[in-house]
Amino acid sequence: MATQQTRRRSVTKTHERIAQLGWRHDYHQPVPIYETRYVFPEKAKDPMKQVMREYLPMQLEKDDRVYGGFDAALRAGMPTKADERWLQVMKPLVLILVYAEGAAGRCMSVVMDVVPNEELLNGYHVQFVDEVRHIGMQMNLARWYAKHTPDPAGWHRGQEYMAENMFTRAGINMFSHSFVGDPIAAGFTMMTVIETAFTNVAFVALPDVATRNGDFIQATTYSSVQSDEARHISNGYATMLTVLQKDENIPLIQHDLQQAWWIVHAFVDPFVGTIMEYFSSDRSDNESYLTKWDRWIRDDWYRSYVEQLGKMGVTVPPDMFERARERLVAGLHHKTAPLAFATWPLQFWKFSPLTEKDFDWFEAQYPGWYDEYGATWEAYSALTDPEEGALLLGGLLDGAPPFCWTCMLACVLDDDMCHRTCTDAHGHERTRFYCSPECKWLDETNPGRYTGDRNFFDKHHGKALSEVIVELGLLRADGRTLIGQPHLRKDQMWTIDHIRDCDFEIRSPNITQARVLGLPDGNWHDPDDPHGAVMGDGNGFQPVTLYGGGRGRNGDGRVVSTPEDLAAAAVGSTPWVKL
Amino acid sequence: MAGEIRAGERRQRRGEDPERQFQWVVPAGRKASIYEDLTLDTQPSVHRFLKSGYHCSFADGRGTWDDASTALDVVTWSAFRDPNELWERPYYQQGAQCEREIDAAVESARSQGLYADVDPDWVAFLRRDGQVPAFVEHGIWAIATRRSRAALSDALTHGIVLYAAIKQRQAQALVIEGMDLDDAFGDVTIEAARERWLREPAWQDARRLVERMGTIRDWGELIVVAGLVVEPLLGVLLRRELLLRGALRAADPVTPAIARNAQREGAWWQDFAVAFARFAVQDPEHGAANRVLVDGWLEAWTPETLAAVDALEPILDGAPGTSFADARAAVVADQRELVAAATLDPARPAVVA
């Protein structure tokens, strides 16, 4: 039988033809359901030129390799060989990353709703299809872990737990920024910051840690995800180059890029930094999270990407990037980790005490670490046996920092923590705490954005810990043993009776701290609201600027909330106020 | 929520380790399918597990997802399932298979000299109008992908996104065929097809219809309109009655591979839309109100879609071997069956041809 090699069509010519499928509507104009402040030039350029005839077989091939990998991992006995400490933390990590993939896909939809440039739309849509792929693969990974790893408890109600977990709901909050609000600002959050800056950490560095801990199926899955990210990064760059063509967009870009940067940093750095360093048993990697951050975030993203935007007229002050790094140096994730570990009864995965080997590694990477944190970790180890009848949380929660209204993680850096007083819809004064002036700035400049029952402990204030555990369904199939455990042993497992014996009452640090500081009510939980939230923004909106003085329209160092004023502040014509 | 508890207990009774199952998944059948395990609740909702509400909202008060994004209402959107359970892996398998079949048809046509047998009048038709349906597919793609984000459950969002992806694949397949025909016969350009789409009177009602679809704000309306009206009447007329039947009669070795695959994908979407409409109009609490809405959408869109179909009479009759009258009768009859399958009334005046 005669055979002939498929004649290769020029991708460029094919794309040129496909690009002509769009047309200017004459009979009915498209009606968007989202609004943007950005204006668009006539022309844009899609650098990827993705054609479905090439795209579909390529993705299928990658899928085949990943799904084949699951079978191989099973045959190789990976579930029992991989490190248990690591496998446990996959429960929150994989599920929040599934949400991230969904957020990225929906980001494409909102961007497509407002971007009129036909040249870009195909690339956006292909990314949404990629994200559907990523959700499928990562949920399959979750399913595989649930079916095959030694201790699956937590996976079985994973999506329920994730929605109300104190850490993963902060992730839901952050990733939602990529498809809520102005679609272009959302696009910057996802494509320019999350995907361009942070996927190297999440999808390259974390798989490396996974492999070191014997979990090569996580690495197989996420490496395949990362192979799509180059196209997504390219979508972000094409979007940036398109809106940059209009001078009136530049102040908006400067403003939105900084806000996107901060909210992503505020969640990803403490969350991923803790997972990477506190849930790895393998200590062969001499590169710390901070070193990786310098390589991928500072050098490859900030210096090679953001700074280069200056040549195109975008001047983003370096303050926020430097501030983020300073916070890491000050121990952002080292101070978050003990709180995460101390709250183990409220988590849906198990924790493992740090060992001498861990201490040595931390000390080598972060000199002085043991002096600052060692005692806490020693105390944690001492209290893992239920017969001790004591919880580290008992000692920590009273003095624990409040949770940040904006990023929803704990305000662990004393010098950064700040607050403001807001009046709710009923005229009642309440206090919002923030982990940083930047998070405060995000709240002040985006009235109405941060909603829901946000402070994790407020609604549990005054309840017994055992009651909250039962309420959140955090018990294993026997109805007694907690899913979360402070150790990995099969014996000495904590039960709900052990917790009851501890007789521990939850006190919200937000409520406690407000009282201690003599501030108005720190409680933002309303038991009469369907979602437990104090309703109405009513937040006494008084936007402020950051970094370096300023007069503002009212001569009081503040700017008002119009996009023009925010944009002016961002570009520097209204200097930042150093808080 | 009672359903979930029962589902978990059911598994326990079967002796399955409850901690090795995704217990939040409420299977449509006896046991959760892999589609259900990998899809359900990947889009969180305040009606499911987000008990603390949406944490990120629009300045105008809309939450992360907005119940008002569709006029339809049901007890729980999370109970909807794609009847064919399409998820990413079978989507890529099927899509790649479509493209392989088309490529194989092209290679076969070239290597076996099959292009020489094609009816010259059909070649003239393809040169003139063969790529114009790509504009229909592309236009539907553009609105489908925009409305996918607002849909109120993961199964719905994924269905709309994959539908859009299928539309884009179909549009591109027709354009690439134009390139292959250009190689084989010459003078087959996208510019000429674009001109026909923009200027030829027979195509203008179709263009007006597709542009009107771009004004749909309600994702539920989009599924109903695209799935029960535009696709079965206009889409099937173009893909099956014009391109598939016409090509088969004209000894065209490639177009049938394109149209047949598109029809197979179209059948998936029709099933999805029928299931969606049934789900809405049979909802125990809101079914009656939904039925009024869906009927209203059928009434609002069917006349204009039929007008677009009727305007294509010269195109179909101008293609060798196709009969507009037969084609119209076939698609109208099939669409009536589809509407009836959705438990809607096909005898409503607006739906009657």
UniProtKB/TrEMBL annotation, chain A:
<protein>
    <recommendedName>
        <fullName>propane 2-monooxygenase</fullName>
        <ecNumber>1.14.13.227</ecNumber>
    </recommendedName>
</protein>
<dbReference type="InterPro" id="IPR012348">
    <property type="entry name" value="RNR-like"/>
</dbReference>
<dbReference type="InterPro" id="IPR009078">
    <property type="entry name" value="Ferritin-like_SF"/>
</dbReference>
<keyword id="KW-0560">Oxidoreductase</keyword>
<dbReference type="GO" id="GO:0004497">
    <property type="term" value="F:monooxygenase activity"/>
</dbReference>
<keyword id="KW-0503">Monooxygenase</keyword>
<dbReference type="Pfam" id="PF02332">
    <property type="entry name" value="Phenol_Hydrox"/>
</dbReference>
<dbReference type="InterPro" id="IPR003430">
    <property type="entry name" value="Phenol_Hydrox"/>
</dbReference>
UniProtKB/TrEMBL annotation, chain B:
<dbReference type="Pfam" id="PF02332">
    <property type="entry name" value="Phenol_Hydrox"/>
</dbReference>
<dbReference type="GO" id="GO:0004497">
    <property type="term" value="F:monooxygenase activity"/>
</dbReference>
<protein>
    <recommendedName>
        <fullName>propane 2-monooxygenase</fullName>
        <ecNumber>1.14.13.227</ecNumber>
    </recommendedName>
</protein>
<keyword id="KW-0503">Monooxygenase</keyword>
<dbReference type="InterPro" id="IPR003430">
    <property type="entry name" value="Phenol_Hydrox"/>
</dbReference>
<dbReference type="InterPro" id="IPR012348">
    <property type="entry name" value="RNR-like"/>
</dbReference>
<keyword id="KW-0560">Oxidoreductase</keyword>
<feature type="region of interest" description="Disordered">
    <location>
        <begin position="1"/>
        <end position="20"/>
    </location>
</feature>
<dbReference type="InterPro" id="IPR009078">
    <property type="entry name" value="Ferritin-like_SF"/>
</dbReference>
